Structures are given as C-alpha cells and as structure tokens.
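User: Round two. Same drill as before: sequence, then structure, for each protein.

Assistant: Same drill it is. First protein:
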Amino acid sequence: MYDIGTRRACPRCQDEPAPPEEPAAYAYLLGLYLGDGCISAHHRGVYVMRIALDQAWPGIIDACEAALYAVRPDNRVCRVKKRGSYAVSCFSKHWPCLFPQHGPGKKHERRIVLERWQQEIVDAYPWEFIRGLIHSDGCRIINWTTRVVAGERKRYEYPRYFFSNKSDDIRKLFTNTLDKVGVEWTVLARGSDPFNVSIARRASVALLDTHVGPKY
C-alpha cells in the first residue's frame, strides 16, 4: 500500500479506493502518458514512469515534472537528457494502480480504456486532459492559402491544431473530450490511416488558444 521510502498510502490501494489527491494534475499527466509516456518494471516491485518530451519546449518539461510531483509528492522526479529530448521520470510502486492502462506491448497495439474513476476525472477536468495530449502528441501550426481578390492573389494565414496518434482508442478519447467542450474537429488520413485529428474552425481554435495555447 505504501510507496517506496515513504509513509504516504496510494489512494487506489485503500480498502475504499479514492481518486488521486490532485485530480487536475492527474488529468494532465494522463494525457502526457497516453501520448508519449510509458511505465516499466524496475526491480523489487518498483516501476518507473517516463515521459519523453522535446527539449525545445522547456515549459512543458517543467509542467510535466510538476504534475509528477503532484500525483506522487513523496517520490523524486529526474530528467534524463537524450539527443534532442528529455525523459522525465519518476519511480513508484504504484504507477500501475494509478495508470491501469499499463500493459505489455505498444499502446496502439492493445485496447486503451479509461476506468470509471479516470473518466470522472477527465469529465471534471477536460481541458487539462486535452492539454496533456496536445503537449505530448499535438501541435499548433500556422497554415496558409492564397485567394484571388480583385484580380490580385493574396496570401492568408490561419492557426490550426493537430493531434496525431496511432491508437484508435487514444484518438477517440481525445475527440470525445473535444466534443464535450464544444470543439469541432476533423480527421485527416495519412494514406489510409486516420492518424491525424485537425482543429481548424476559428471558434474551436480560439477555445484551444484560451485553454491550451502553443507549446512553450
């Protein structure tokens, strides 16, 4: 029940399991984990959560570290520098309790379904979940097109968000949550694979700009 080297009990291992104490941070970390995270067995029943993040976005690396500390406050978080990226890691006996999506194999090759208590957190903190997913597997870009106006061709630019993930289940979690907050989206297939979710309508982009914003 207790974590390595601490007296703090895991909220999921109680006789009456409870949600994490910081549900907003948990929703954000869940999004990061489903996008670019993994949980691996270490030794003596200890597991390591690793989130791979591009070093170009130090603000997201800081936010990830803060979320890990919020969810497991008694465990040390470390950053391991790799070529062009950081692996933000934290050791705990209870990552499989807190993230039951952990399992053998790649996430896109197995079912990913939220448990009821996780879905309740996502429903209560949808923007934190969306933000975590976009910070891991999404981006905000500027698209452009040209139009002929009064005989003159002019260039127009407009912002757009993308989320790309091979897992049908993870993309569905993302789009279901977008639906709940009123964001319109479309799927752009890469060849025959619908890996990319696009948000381009002005009102929907404005919502994402308010609650997520560009990577930083």
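Second protein:
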Amino acid sequence: MKTDTGRGPSWSDLRDDLVVANRILVDQHVLDAFGHVSVRTAPGEDAFLLSRNLAPGLVTAADLVEYDLDGDSEDDRAPYLERFIHAEIYRRRPDVMAVVHSHSATVVPFSVVQTPLRAVLHMAGFLAERPTPVFEIRDSAGGATDLLVTSSKLGQALAETLGDGTVALMRGHGSVAVAGSLRAAVYRAVYTEVNARAQAEALALGTPIYLTPEEGATADRTIGGQVERAWGIWCDRVRATLAGSGGHGE
C-alpha cells in the first residue's frame, strides 16, 4: 500500500471524509453490505481512493487504497470487483471528484420499468434536467452476465450512459451518483433514494407533477449551498460508530 508520507493534512482530511462517507451512506440506507464510494485524490489527478473489498460500514482509513484509472493499485489486498465503475467515470469526467455506487432499495425498481426516475422534490433538483438514463449491460456484454461492471469496457459503457449527468441507473442492479465533491456526491446519493421513494408514493396516488429542468437547476443551486448542513447532521449520527471502530486512524 502506498504510504502517506509528505502528503499533509489535506490528504488526511480527504481519507477521513471518505471513511465518514461510507458510514453515512450505510446509516442513510443507501449502502448496506454492498456498494461503495470513492473520491479523486485531487483535482486533475488520474487516481482515486476506494476501500479494499469490504462492507462499507466496516471501512476505516487503513482500508483505503489508491487506484489509477485502469483500476490498478500497488496494494495486493482484494479490491472491489466493480472498481471500474469509478475508474472509467473519472476518466470520462474530469469534473467529477466523487462517485457513489449503490443498490438503494427504492431506486432499483425504476431501473426495470418504463417509468423513468424524475425529480419530484426540490431536494433532488439535480435529477430534473432529463429523465434519469438506465445502463443496459446487455447492450455491451450480452444476455448472460451477472450484471456487474467488472471490466474497463463495461465501465466505459456505463460512463457513456451517465454522460454529463449526475445520476444513472443500472438495470436490475443499482445506480451511480457523481458530483464535484465527496460531500455533494453523498448528498446526491441520499436524495436520489429519497426522491425515488417520494416518486413511487406519488405514482400510487396519481400522476406526479415533475420539476421542470429550470426549476431543478434553480433548486440545485440553492440547495447545493446547503450540503454542509446535511453533512454535519449525518456526521453527528455516525460519530459513535466511528469512535468505536477507530475509523479515522490507521
């Protein structure tokens, strides 16, 4: 594993935030025993941090591994099979600083029906620009896969489906959420699940009135400035588990 010698306090803070992000996403029922979250090591860098193959709720700073955009690392511990999701999104999107891949329960049904996931809440204005695209793995790998993105080729196809957007679904599998910061990516992953739940409930009642792209953009600019407010309360909720696990240390 690469050492952190000479990388300074900002590197330590980035690692600490990634540990906290794992715990928050579990606490918010976005991740469970599976799924993962990563962060680019610095703006413009072709490398990212991601845990070794481990349940997100158990991740500590000692479990973090630095990968390049081929999904390779000097660390010999078992990696996540789907690290290529992160690598290829970072390769295609220099603006992206963090990626969350989840199987959140209310989002997955929208990946297997004709009704697209769309913004119904102001908190999810980032979903309003277009109906959320769905990655169909059969188009890239045929009809006998395990639905996992386990190669650069499949990661590239998923990144193309995401395009310049914020969220993409993966048919029968889950979703990815991206942002220009780790905290914003966590926010988007959480509120993608919240919006999916609200949209499903609205569809059961009748025909939802969706946010327009203009409403979504305006709401996202306003609410996007409040990400730290959400991060603060979510951190408070997981502080006890971090203290108990030694999550911020080596």
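The chain has a mean pLDDT of 94.

User: Perfect.
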